[in-house]
Design a protein that fits this description.
Length: 328
């Protein structure tokens, strides 16, 4: 399964609107507040993705600390063992009296004895040199192993700090989104039944049958088609309710591709497509910053989870709201 994604964007919510005095004002404010709520919810999704990534990274780096420290401990033990070997060679050389050529000459009883002692001295020197070289190499290995262990611990600590920051950001985004969602729901309650119908606009939740074509986009569109009529819900991931990006994530995952959860991040995958070149299965994005996404279904329409109080349906693509499209 393909996994696609990038880092989420950030934005600050605007101040709460003045409470409306009538249903018409409520309708006007609702459009603004709902758009803000949807954008904040998208940012919340992005913050969740960031938190998950940081926590996974921290866990991986934490797991690396143990082996790194074990390697450092082994290197230290090896160093100590070789130090003892080196000390033993040095002590043996000292106790044997074979310290230099002069001592060898004084201790020799004949030229042959001198040559024999010189040969032994050279062998001892070679052994001492070999032990010393091994010791120096192991000391270097110990330093590197300890540095690796320290670096692993530092990376794990940094990842844990990043995860803590991401968790706070997630909490902030969730709080801001919930404030706007609550405001939108209160405004929605002020609308008359006719205003609600007018607000939801044209579109159909009736199943038109399978969409023809090939490719992952068409496959995802047909999976999304099976969800027609399901209610919109902020943060909805399915299968009982969806928000806009929740629907596209769910449908494309069924088709074998994992999209990032945030609509703005989905707008970075695949290839860019102009409004005039839309094909069935393309992802269609609204607003700046991007806060809504659906799947193009042909004939100027797309399938999406539009807004609270509405359901997953097929409706016309708004040329004025359109900002981008991507083809996978």
């Amino acid at each position: 399964m393909t996994v696609l994604g990038v880092a989420p964007a950030s934005a600050q919510p605007s101040s709460p609107p003045t409470p409306p005095s009538n249903a018409a004002d409520a309708k006007t404010q609702l459009d603004q507040v709902q758009r803000e709520a949807e954008q904040l919810t998208e940012q919340w999704h992005g913050a969740k993705d960031t938190l998950d990534a940081r926590q996974a990274e921290a866990a991986t780096l934490d797991a690396a600390i143990g082996p790194a420290r074990a390697a450092a401990d082994k290197a230290k033990a090896d160093e100590e063992a070789y130090r003892q070997q080196t000390d033993a060679v040095a002590m043996s050389t000292y106790e044997s009296g074979n310290l230099d050529q002069f001592n060898a000459l004084l201790a020799s009883g004949s030229p042959q004895d001198f040559l024999d002692q010189m040969s032994a001295l050279e062998q001892i020197s070679a052994e001492y040199k070999d032990a010393l070289e091994k010791l120096l190499a192991i000391v270097d290995t110990t330093k590197r192993a300890q540095a690796d262990a320290d670096a692993a611990a530092a990376r794990a600590k940094a990842a844990e700090d990043e995860a803590a920051k991401a968790e706070k950001d997630l909490s902030d985004r969730k709080r801001d989104a919930e404030i706007r969602i609550d405001q939108a729901e209160k405004l929605l309650d002020r609308l008359t039944p006719q205003q609600r119908r007018d607000r939801n606009g044209s579109g159909s939740s009736n199943d038109p049958g399978p969409f023809a074509g090939t490719g992952v986009g068409v496959a995802a569109l047909n999976f999304a088609r099976e969800e027609l009529g399901k209610p919109y819900a902020w943060g909805g991931n399915g299968p009982n309710s969806f928000d806009c990006s929740g629907l596209t994530v769910w449908a494309f995952k069924k088709a074998g591709v994992t999209l990032p959860r945030m609509a703005a991040d989905q707008a970075t995958v695949g290839q860019p497509v102009s409004f005039d070149n839309l094909q069935v299965g393309d992802l269609v994005f609204y607003y700046t910053p991007i806060g809504h996404v659906g799947i193009y279904s042909g004939n100027g329409n797309f399938l999406d989870a539009p807004q609270t109080g509405d359901v997953v349906k097929i409706q016309p693509v708004s040329r004025s709201a359109f900002v981008a499209a991507r083809r996978l």
